[in-house]
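Protocol step 4 of 6.
Sequence for Gamma-glutamyl phosphate reductase (Halarchaeum rubridurum) entered exactly as in the expression construct, tag removed. Do not edit the line below.
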Amino acid sequence: MSESDPSTETKVEAAEAAALDLANVDDEDRSAALHALADAIEDAEAEILDANETDVAAAEEKLAAGDYTQSFVDRLTLDAAKVESIAEMVRSVAEQDDPLGETLEARRLDDALELYKVGVPIGVVATVFESRPDALVQIAALALKSGNAVILKGGSEATHSNRVLYDVIREATADMPDGWAQLIEAREDVDTLLGMDDAVDLVMPRGSSAFVQYVQDNTKIPVLGHTEGVCHVYVDRDADLDMAADVALDAKVQYPAVCNAVETLLVHESVAADFLPGMLERYADAGVELRGDRRTRDIAADADADVEVAAAREADWTQEYGDLVLAVKVVDSLDAAVEHVNANGSKHTESILTDDADRAGDFMRRVDAASVFHNASTRFADGYRYGLGAEVGISTGKIHARGPVGLDGLTTYKYYLEGDGQLVASYAGENPTPFLHEEFDGEWVPGHRSDSA
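Step 5 output, structure tokens:
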């Protein structure tokens, strides 16, 4: 950005002012702006790919120098199909139900005294992310649909891609309140942002646990963190082994660079000798580097398979590889699988493969994670696949929002009370009027009460 670019403080203040107006823009207009954005992204495909090519070329130099991993470069890279998928994601967000103005609860306190709990935007949300330029568009689209102003901070490795995408967003949504979306770039801008707790309502960092912890330690703003995905697939004693092999392969190799890819495969000891030799060969054929415990290595050796399985180190059980690398462990029981997952996972996504519904339920209830699956690949943990349109990230915490965070995670609520001159004094004292506290089906309409004639 140019030297004349506004300061971070100015951008945040502009977003704060825009948020008040955006909260009152009709859903029809917000959705129309998103459809315009999707069209603009498709129209700007060549410009987007040219900018991305510049970023990728620089990243590949750092890859050759050992500074970046291949999975990091893969997450950075766009192509024509990816640009089209970004546009379709924006359209999917536009078609979601309006989360604003929805009556979440309605309660009659007394005759002609009704309380409504109604969905509203959070206000100003800020996000800090790296590598994936498509994340900038996902987050902006969700913010607009949910009526929130947004501060976007991408990684320096995607600078050119992010600038072009941001310009497309600004131009395509010019009818929205000015300043609703802001882009910051310098690392020091993040520290400035974190100090503006009077103007920013939520910050969403996407990155390592250490980075999320840094954000939490350096701001008074509520933090909704997206950290590593140390995900597991557990093949139970009662699994359909053919199905399990297909799911376990998909969970690792379909796209290994993302946070919902499996990083550790756990196998019940009673099926390990039947399952692992063929499974390890399938992984090896797909280019997966394998790291196993002693029993896994012994089974591979006894099967005389031409598969190299390195000895797993203790650090492998808590590692997010984000690449074609997998840790494999044989466990004695379902209890041992649950214990391993809870001790080493990141509370992201876990999966059990079994035909025994009771054992599946036991695993799913006892494992502490945002998403727990039965007979399904961990790769399904995604806002788009969940039908949320897109996601701003996957929250591994437990407060406010958990798992893929879509529109609901970007809203809060207000209480609206519709009365007819009631006084608190009437409900106090020696002979108070009793409250009704009756739940009823109703939507809040300003100035209207459901029991009004």
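Step 6, annotate. The chain has a mean pLDDT of 91.
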